[in-house]
Amino acid sequence: MIRTFSTFAAAAILALIPLAVSAQISPGTQLVGTMDQNLSSKDAQVGQSFTMSNVHSLNHDISGATIYGHVAQVQRAGQGRPGKIELQVDKVNTRAGNVYKVAGYIANAKVTTKSNATKEIGATAVGALVGGLLGHTAGAVLGGAGGLLYAKNSRENVSIAQGSTITVQISSSRRQASHY
To answer: Quick one: pLDDT at residue 111?
Structure first.
């Protein structure tokens, strides 16, 4: 009985190996993984590399893979300009040892932006104070409104935290030689 179970277990494991080896990353595949580092539009640099781990396809044909990519574009937040980060995916290494040169885009990512409320309240108060010193009541109202408009137009940087779940949509893929 024990020998039969062992033989059955070995056959089941061997039957799964071809699936892991033959799993392909084709255009349209969505891969989900975890960001390995923090990225922020405040200090990210174009060309800066990033990795994602624990990557799997939605149908789990691929699991335990690693994605390698880089920051393709950064826009720092400023007056009237929101922060942005554009990531490009370059390569996927599967747990089975396959390496794919890929192109794709981020289909879903948890991106955080700091609230602008404190800045708006502070700018309104400072604007009202300065306006009041210059022109009494009417100056205070106009100064407060001007400060609020300035702060409303001031944008915040965006960040992607380490540990965030990211979904990548593959648009092209080419399998590479497994050795580096």
So the answer is: 72
